[in-house]
Description:
The protein is mostly beta strands and 198 residues long. It is built from one helix and 16 strands. The strands form four sheets. It has a ten-stranded antiparallel barrel. It has a two-stranded antiparallel sheet with strand order 1-2.
Amino acid sequence: MKTLKFLLVVITLSLVACTPKVTEKRTNTSPPSAPSSNVKTDTKFPDDWLGKWKGELKISKGSGLVQTLPMHMRIEATDKVGEYSWLTTFGDKAETSKPYILKTLDAENGLYVVDEDNSIKLESYLFENKLVSWYVVQGSLILASHEMRDGQIVFEILAGKEEPVSVTGGEEVDGETIPEVKTMPFTVMQRAFLERDL
């Protein structure tokens, strides 16, 4: 049962494992004063993302790290303008392999779609140097992101049930009507820091 749940999470994470897109768009997000960290935020998307990447995917629950496995990504231009192939594999022998195509919908506004070529298409949104997707699959809420950070691709998945863990608010307090707030649970985190595979 645990293996099945893990595979579902990996498959879900793989659904998202596609990110970069076309566009000669250059983003410069440096604040007016130099930041205290030396995180590079001036990247060209997707040009700076192309190539082969490798690292370790770490899967954590509330109790801490539960599993680590090899992860590889290969991002390449296709022969179609605005489309890139994105292959993500997991495991020592690439037991789980997910090929996708990232398509540009509106590069100016950072809107892309990850096409799994099986009727599943995930809208993805580029904010500066970070591509994010937020979706529900088989009752699980998934927040997935790929971020270019200091020459690495940081891949992250947060997953939990679609049902709220609590509902608060929805009352009148001191003459003010407080809106209802549903808090959604996240029970699994998957994260990888991927380096270029030369």
